[in-house]
Design a protein that fits this description.
heterodimer, A: mainly alpha, two-stranded antiparallel sheet, 69% helix, B: alpha+beta, four-stranded antiparallel sheet, three-stranded antiparallel sheet, 11 helices, rod-shaped
Chain lengths: 293, 468
């Protein structure tokens, strides 16, 4: 085969350009850490990146929403714990003041403390987290308990997505926990009736209040258990979401990000190839009859 | 005496022949880098011998039989179609590679916006009456609509850029068609006077090669020495010494992009010509513009349309903070055509985010998030293609990448074939400086020798003239 000067120059040009292109590509891969810069670099991988990144964002959002719900539920559980303490104090007073050794004025004075306990319960049940009244059901923009103990919230249960498409109730029904809807006792009424019995020096009424306090304590305790159970579910969801998010991150990294040792090795190889191409090209240019004549 | 004068005369012819050989070698060397140049060689022939007597013929020296080109017709017939295929896939691949709007890792791209929209909706679902979260959802909805618009605009700009290249290719093809027709005329005329216009032939081959690259036209020689150029669909672009005219006209059925037309030789009426009847770069550009990018654009429009309708239907099923039924969240046309470029968020929601219908009942306002949760669930709703929005988007990106990669692979394959054939042609027709230096030295030596012959004959004549 005849080899002409143009062939030599063309070969030199094409080979060095190709070697430079390979080196430049390897350098971009190493410096950016990205294996895919255009969908054509890996069409199937590009699709995986899209769905995995959206999944990653999904699990992050689920984790955040679950975290916020858990904060609210924790607060609600804590508030009910305080309500239990208040009712426990009421029970102690009922035990003491039901005794014959206390006089009417003693009872009337204690009625003031019970009024305070009542107000404390109302205040606790109007707890707000981040601008939301957590015991109001879906009516969460205003205090759910009025000063007289009337509940103006509703029976709505808030839900949160704990996994894609899976919803979990994350609010406690104050109408059940405090007001005894569905067969329970009205905790606020127990306190009010107790205070009235004390003011009226109604010893039997005071003694009967014990039963109301016991039922109230059981009722509030049941609500706290429900909150605890929901919190466990949210905690599990948080861990699973975190794990799923991390898996999606790894999946994106596996597809989109370059394997640095491998990329560095490819870059070194491309560099050597370029040096070889330049040396071969320069050498082929030197051999000419023109220099010999 | 007469024989000696004949030697002088032959010497003159010999000098002329070897000078022509040296000149040709010099011409070859000077054109060593000229594209399409085929090396030329002087064909030296011995002059017919002179009859002296029985069984005795005296040689009459050397003459130029002709100056020919070194060409391989077998190779040259294969090259135009190979160049056309390479140019076609290369143009398509490069055009698609230049589209960055669909990069899967583009920050703030469509996938990020879609993911963010549903993420913000999830946070709103947890606390639907929170004004900051409502504002965030409206903001991410606007950003998603903007991402659709921007991606669509990126594809539309790429199509417009490709369209401009189609138009410039058509103009270049017309100029080359005229050039080939003119060169046909000049070559036929030169041949009629007995000469072989090698350099005109090279120029015509250059023009026809470029036409092959531009529009896929292949040369078809005729008996008169013309090169006719035929398009892949059979239409004749250059017929003898006349060329057809390509033109472009806006195609209303294709968003006003250029439709290629041909006004055939002898006709005044342009006829539309399908891309399948073209080749080369123009075909590659049209395929990128009207096949891959159009399909991608249509798929994106369908995604925007379906997504907006699914979201709107769910949003309208809910109730806003005022207790009113939800309005459509996104503005999108009645059909999917152009949906990605026009999709926007309902301005009423932008003005007042209380209009976000997060509650599933009037009684549940403001804290009920039933409808917000239902809107989140639309993330899994199959759209018209059978997949949900994220999978549909992934499919669009993958399909685009796949078609770009396919064009690139074909470009590489055809490029290798074309390069190999061009290398073989260069091997036959190209200029080797070493070879030409030797040829030149060979001609110089012969020239020197013939000069000596003349000198010797002159000396012999002197001897004769000085005889007393």
């Amino acid at each position: 085969m005849r080899v002409t000067e143009k062939m030599l120059f063309n070969t030199g040009q094409v080979q060095t350009a190709a070697a430079r292109e390979r080196l430049e590509k390897a350098m971009v891969e190493v410096s950016s850490g990205k294996r895919i810069t255009h969908a054509a670099d890996d069409p199937a991988g590009s699709g995986i990146i899209i769905t995995s990144k959206i999944s990653q964002q999904r699990y992050e959002a689920i984790q955040q929403a679950v975290g916020r719900s858990a904060d609210e539920l924790n607060t609600a559980e804590g508030v009910l714990g305080e309500v239990s303490n208040v009712m426990q104090r009421g029970r102690e007073l009922a035990m003491q003041l039901g005794s014959a050794q206390f006089s009417g004025p003693d009872r009337a004075t204690s009625a003031n403390e019970v009024d305070g306990l009542f107000n404390t319960v109302i205040g606790l049940m109007n707890t707000e987290v981040g601008g939301r009244y957590i015991f109001g059901g879906t009516q969460d923009d205003a205090p759910p308990f009025q000063a007289d103990g009337t509940y103006v919230g509703d029976a709505g249960i808030r839900q949160v997505e704990i996994a894609p498409g899976v919803l979990e109730p994350v609010s406690l029904r104050a109408d059940i926990a405090l007001k005894g809807v569905g067969g329970g006792v009205d905790v606020t009424q127990v306190l009010r009736d107790f205070a009235i019995a004390l003011r009226n020096n109604d010893v039997v009424g005071v003694q009967n209040a014990l039963d109301g306090f016991d039922k109230s304590l059981n009722q509030v305790s049941g609500a706290r258990k429900d909150a605890g159970a929901s919190l466990n579910i949210l905690q599990t969801s948080d861990q699973v979401s975190r794990l799923s998010r991390d898996q999606m991150k790894i999946q994106v990294a596996n597809v989109a990000e370059t394997d640095l040792p491998e990329a560095a090795s490819k870059m070194a190889l491309a560099n050597t190839a370029l040096e070889a191409a330049l040396a071969a090209t320069a050498s082929s240019f030197k051999m000419s009859l023109i220099d010999k004549l | 005496m007469a024989d000696l004068l004949a030697i002088l005369s032959q010497g003159a012819n010999g000098l002329a022949a070897h000078r022509a050989a040296a000149q040709t070698a010099a011409h070859n060397i000077q054109n060593v880098n000229t594209d399409g140049f085929s090396r030329q060689r002087v064909e030296l022939e011995a002059m017919p011998a002179e009859y002296l007597r029985t069984n005795a013929y005296a040689g009459m020296g050397v003459t130029i039989g002709g100056i020919t080109q070194s060409r391989d017709a077998f190779l040259e017939r294969q090259i135009p179609s190979s160049m056309a295929a390479n140019a076609q896939y290369s143009a398509e691949s490069q055009s698609l590679r230049a589209v960055v709007a669909l990069n899967p890792e583009a920050p703030g791209g469509l996938s990020d916006s879609l993911g963010n929209f549903y993420s913000d909706l999830r946070l709103l679902g947890q606390f639907p009456s929170q004004p900051g979260l409502r504002a965030a959802v409206v903001g991410s909805a606007r950003n998603l609509a903007y991402s659709f618009n921007r991606t669509s605009e990126g594809i539309a700009n790429a199509r417009a850029g490709i369209d401009a290249r189609v138009q410039s290719n058509v103009e270049e093809a017309n100029a080359l068609g005229e050039r080939v027709a003119l060169l046909n005329a000049q070559i036929v005329k030169s041949r009629s006077t007995g000469g072989e216009p090698n350099d005109l032939i090279d120029e015509r081959r250059n023009a026809s090669d470029r036409l092959s690259q531009l529009i896929g036209a292949t040369p078809v020689p005729d008996a008169d020495g013309n090169i006719n150029m035929a398009l892949p669909g059979g239409a004749v672009f250059v017929s003898g010494q006349k060329a057809a005219k390509l033109s472009t006209a806006p195609d209303p059925a294709n968003a006003g992009f250029s439709l290629v037309q041909i006004t055939k030789v002898g006709s005044l009426t342009p006829e539309s010509i399908s891309s399948a009847s073209l080749g080369g770069e123009v075909r590659g550009f049209i395929d990128a513009r009207d096949v891959t990018l159009k399909q991608t654009m249509d798929s994106l429009d369908t995604l925007a349309f379906d997504f907006a309708n699914v979201l709107n239907a769910q949003h309208q099923a809910g109730f806003d903070l005022n207790g009113n039924a939800g309005e459509p969240m996104f503005n999108v046309g009645a059909t999917s055509t152009g949906a990605a470029s026009t999709i926007s968020v309902n301005t009423n929601l932008i003005t007042d985010n209380k209009l976000l219908a997060t509650s599933s009942s009037v009684a549940g306002v403001p804290g009920d998030s039933g409808n917000a949760l239902a809107m989140i669930a639309t993330e899994r709703t199959p759209l018209s293609g059978g997949n949900n929005s994220a999978s549909t988007l992934a499919g669009i990106i993958s399909a685009f990448g796949s078609r770009t990669r396919e064009a690139g692979a074909r470009s590489e394959q055809e490029g290798a074939i074309a390069s190999n054939l061009q290398g073989l042609r260069e091997s036959v027709s190209g200029v080797s400086i070493d070879e030409e230096m030797i040829n030149m030295t060979k001609a110089q030596r012969a020239f020197d020798a013939v000069s000596k012959v003349i000198q010797t004959a002159d000396s012999m004549l002197d001897t004769l003239m000085n005889l007393r």
